[in-house]
Design brief:
Number of strands: 7
CATH superfamily: LmbE-like
Low-confidence stretches: 1-7, 276-280
Structural class: alpha/beta
Bound molecules: zinc ion
Radius of gyration: 18 Å
Order of helices and strands: EHEHEHEHHEHEHHEH
Number of helices: 9
Strand order of the largest sheet: 3-2-1-4-5-7-6
CATH class: Alpha Beta
Strand content: 15-25%
CATH topology: Rossmann fold
Distance between the termini: 31 Å
CATH architecture: 3-Layer(aba) Sandwich
Mean pLDDT: 89
Number of domains: 1
Length: 280
């Protein structure tokens, strides 16, 4: 576990809250890398080690996934990672008060201006993801200090279908007799991702950081068996297949623009906006 460092007030701060190692890379790896490159202090709270999510028969999977998460976080420029040990697969049944307390603590320690977590569809209705959406929303709304802006991330409808089709085309060339890849991080139905996602309020083209997103995804080796379609995405195709990210601003009170809104309106921007004014 990594402790949060004390926050410094001169740069905006973003905290991502997810359930398992790999969620951060798949859901919002491009935006996290972009923000880090611009000098935003980026932190990640991951609530479980994903110890039940292996597909490779790895023993000590929790330790393996913790290492993979640290590698992915380094690729994305996430400066602070807190990995908690709540039980994988049990977050809907984990004490809500305890989860919300952990999340509130992370928000306060990061002095977060912006918090990102799953939307209500949990990317593909994963129960742990849906629970993190609910607990993070409750934690942000019940916090006693300055309330950060809350954004929910979804996957664009059809995006993972495109990845699988691309991979199948490549695989057919490489091995015409082989079985085409069908899975995305262990999920057999690519259409489950984003199938009922609420409409985004913020569409961000993170194509310039899609290479980092892909490299971060590939750090999660225990989740990427050979037949996983993501293994056939290349740095050349990543911007098209993984570059567009969808976010929805939660209605948590007054909603002045944040640095994320300004980022989305400047897709080619590689330097910080003139003003990093935090949300009120
Ligand atoms: Zn997950």
């Amino acid at each position: 576990m990594t402790e949060f460092p004390e926050a410094t007030a001169d740069r905006p701060s973003l905290l991502a809250v997810f359930a398992h190692p790999d969620d951060e890379s798949l859901a919002c790896g491009g935006l996290l890398a972009w923000c880090a490159a611009l000098g935003v202090r980026t932190s990640l709270l991951c609530l479980t080690h994903g110890e039940h999510g292996g597909h490779t028969g790895v023993s000590s999977l929790a330790a393996v996934r913790a290492r993979e998460l640290r590698e992915a976080a380094a690729v994305l420029g996430i400066s602070d990672v807190t990995l908690l040990a709540h039980q994988d697969g049990m977050l809907p049944w984990t004490d809500a008060t305890r989860l919300e307390s952990d999340i509130r603590h992370a928000v306060a320690r990061a002095d977060a201006d912006v918090v990102i977590t799953f939307d209500e569809d949990g990317l593909y209705w994963h129960p742990d993801h849906v629970a993190v959406h609910e607990r993070t929303t409750a934690a942000v709304l019940s916090g006693s200090g300055r309330r950060p802006a809350l954004y929910y991330v979804t996957l664009p409808t059809g995006s993972m279908r495109s990845v699988v089709e691309h991979a199948a085309t490549l695989a057919a060339v490489q091995d015409p007799t082989g079985a085409p890849p069908t899975h995305i991080l262990g999920i057999a139905d690519p259409d489950a991702f984003g199938s009922c996602a609420p409409a985004p309020t913020l569409v961000v083209d993170t194509g310039n950081f899609a290479r980092q997103k892909l490299l971060a995804l590939h750090c999660h080796r225990s989740q990427l068996p050979k037949q996983d379609a993501l293994t056939l995405v290349t740095t050349a195709t990543a911007p098209r297949l993984l570059g567009i990210e969808h976010y929805r601003r939660a209605g948590t009170g007054p909603m002045p623009d944040t640095f994320l809104d300004r980022l989305a309106s400047c897709p080619d921007q590689q330097t910080p906006p003139d003003s990093w004014s935090p949300v009120s």
